[in-house]
Design brief:
By secondary structure, the chain is an alpha+beta fold. It has helices spanning 3-13, 43-46, 94-108, 131-140, 223-230, 243-253, 261-279, 290-308, 317-329, 334-338, 340-370, 379-389, 393-402, 409-431, 440-459, 488-503, 515-520; strands spanning 17-18, 56-64, 80-89, 116-121, 147-150, 155-157, 162-173, 190-203, 209-222, 376-377, 406-407, 466-471, 476-481, 508-514, 534-540, 544-547, 562-571, 574-581. Helices cover 40% and strands 22% of the residues. Strands 1, 2, 3, 4, 5, 6, 7, 8 and 9 form a 9-stranded mixed sheet that branches. Helix 2 (43-46) links the parallel strand 1 (17-18) and strand 2 (56-64).
Length: 582
């Protein structure tokens, strides 16, 4: 049985309810480009909002992280991965959580106890040593020499303030070497496979910490890593998660994985991630900003490595790989199947565009090398070929060798490293995530998106549906289905109608009901498949009824004056409105 199914069946048997995986592109969370962890979509509930499924939850969540994109190509890094998680929202706590994890690993996955080790929080001047966790591991049979006490690695907090607490990490000895008696977390033969976070305290702005009245458990287990552990392979790409995808790459390249590991890993990983981004119902397309930039970068990097394998770029090689990925995941993620044609079109179009860029790059290379005075391609020219035309340094060196020209590879690496650090620094805010996005102004904007959606249906037509939104403290962005540019009159009428409803002081009410009841009642819903069977419905007077996770104001009079600042195209058949509240 698939590890996802085993995990869900186990926790359902313990009274947990399975919740659907959230989209890879988060709604109304500007702090991140993608959902980067299983807990991210559950932030409102970890903050205290009641979850319609109760207090025990489990799921498998689609996650994307690109801060280590340049590390992909080794045995362990992936940009897309699946996170298995179980949660207690004020229900069970440390002892039960640890026992559930231990029993699943040892009794259901049959991992020998002697291959396991754990870390626990050692304590500091504000929070004591986590004795409860330590004693529970001893009770379950983990030898004290296999329990390491740390401070920084075993304390979790999303930001400078907010819910926080100790965590315990579970490690597996992934080596054929003799297992050491004493566990050293710095020994990289021990790999972390599961993390249980205990949200027990609240850190205030003055640095003080108080105990939370309602304590939560948040756990996360990386599927790709655990499957590799269970199948006894030290290369994740040799596990069953990747084998069938690698076989297709071997077929289209007519080469073997054992001789071309790095390029094949990059192609497999990047095409898989590109499939999930372009299949997401938010309608992301390759571009030069935000999620679209990441999508473009992934596809183009995969193409560069396809060229390294001498794959005929003009063939349908990317389609063959994508179809293998879609076939593998469509049982678990319905949007992959529903948006199959969109995925294939995105990959093909970007391939065609990049091929033209590569040709321009080859012409630029010829021009540069014809004008060299000393048969040395300096670091600046090498980096220009990489940054502007997408040439990997290996391709530049290969082309230069044919002309007996040397390349300043070390200088290029220094320049590339500086560029990489700059990119990491610039994107740090985008990727940090955390318990954010529920401020008073953002709550007002969130309610305003519902009013805007309702107003567009009145002014433009019933066929208008929300396709996505993004909210910050400064503005809101709202994407909607529409086949034409809004006229000035339509914009004026829409803005006036939203402001009328705000002035009317309409009450915002919330009810829970079955998904079927909600749809039958006329509730508007974007991405119906992501919602559980029991849903939360927000109604604004008689003008709006939508499935939503919140938060919202209690009365529209709290919002302020709504003002449309821009209306533009987002993608084919989708328009975008930017608006502010004054």
């Amino acid at each position: 049985m698939n590890l996802k199914d085993l995990f869900i069946d186990y926790f359902v048997s313990l009274g947990h309810k399975q919740i659907p995986s959230a989209p890879v592109v988060p709604e109304n969370d500007p702090s991140v480009l993608f959902n980067t962890a299983g807990m991210q979509p559950l932030i409102p509930y970890l903050m205290g909002q009641t979850h319609p499924y109760g207090t025990r939850l489990c799921d498998y969540q689609k996650c994307i992280r690109t801060n280590d994109l340049d590390s992909v190509g080794d045995t362990t890094h992936h940009t897309f991965f699946e996170m298995l998680g179980n949660w207690s929202l004020g229900d069970y706590f440390k002892n039960e959580s640890i026992k559930y994890s231990f029993d699943f690993l040892t009794k259901h996955l049959n991992i020998p106890v002697e291959r396991l080790a754990v870390t626990v929080f050692a304590g500091n001047n504000l929070i004591p040593f986590d004795e409860v966790t330590y004693n529970e591991w001893i009770t379950l049979g983990i030898n004290e020499s296999r329990i390491a006490k740390t401070v920084e690695d075993n304390f979790w907090i999303a930001g400078p303030t907010g819910p926080c607490g100790a965590d315990t990490e579970i490690f597996y000895f992934r080596s054929e070497d003799e297992i050491p008696d004493k566990f050293d977390p710095e020994d990289n033969r021990w790999v972390e496979i599961w993390n249980n976070v205990f949200m027990e305290f609240y850190k205030h702005e003055d640095g003080s910490i108080t105990e939370l009245p309602k304590k939560n458990v948040d756990t996360g287990m990386g599927l790709e890593r655990v499957v590799a552990v269970l199948e006894g392979v030290n290369d994740n790409y040799e596990s069953s998660v990747w084998k069938d995808i690698i076989k297709v790459i071997e077929k289209v390249s007519n080469k073997e994985y054992k001789d071309n590991k790095q390029s094949m890993r990059i192609i497999a990983d990047h095409i898989r991630t590109a499939v999930f981004i372009s299949a997401d119902n938010s309608g992301i397309k390759p571009s030069n900003t935000d999620q679209g930039y990441i999508l473009r970068r992934l596809i183009r990097r995969a193409i560069r490595h396809a060229k390294k394998l001498n794959i005929n770029i003009d063939s349908n090689w990317e389609e063959e790989i994508a179809i293998a990925i879609i076939d593998k995941y469509e049982k678990y993620y319905s949007e992959i199947k529903q948006n199959k044609n969109i995925v294939l079109e995105v990959l093909k179009n970007e391939k065609i565009k990049f091929n033209k860029t590569l040709e321009k790059g080859l012409r630029e290379f010829e021009k540069i090398t014809n004008n060299l005075s000393n048969n040395v391609l300096d670091k600046d020219l090498a980096f220009k070929l990489y940054d502007t035309y997408g040439f990997p340094i290996e391709l530049t060196v290969e082309l230069a060798d044919e002309l007996n020209i040397s390349v300043d590879v070390e200088g290029f690496k220094d320049k590339f490293k500086a560029h990489q650090e700059l990119s990491r620094t610039a994107s740090a805010g985008k990727f940090k995530g955390g318990l954010a996005g529920n401020s008073e102004i953002e709550t007002k904007y969130h309610t305003a998106t519902h009013l805007l959606n309702a107003a567009l249906k009145v002014v433009v037509g019933d066929y208008v549906h929300q396709k996505g939104s993004n909210i910050t403290t400064e503005r809101m962005r709202f994407d909607f289905s529409c086949d034409h540019k809004l006229t000035d009159e339509e914009k004026i009428k829409t803005e006036a109608l939203v402001n009328k409803w705000i002035k009317d002081g309409l009450n915002v009410t919330v009810t829970e009901m079955s998904k079927e009841e909600a749809i039958n009642s006329g509730a508007e819903c974007m991405f119906i498949e992501k919602y559980p069977d029991i849903v939360t419905v927000y109604s604004i007077g008689d003008v709006s009824k939508e499935l939503c996770g919140g938060p919202h104001v209690k009365n529209t009079s709290e919002i302020g004056t709504f003002k449309i600042t821009k209306e533009e195209a987002s993608s084919a058949g989708v328009r975008r409105i930017k608006a502010i509240i004054e």
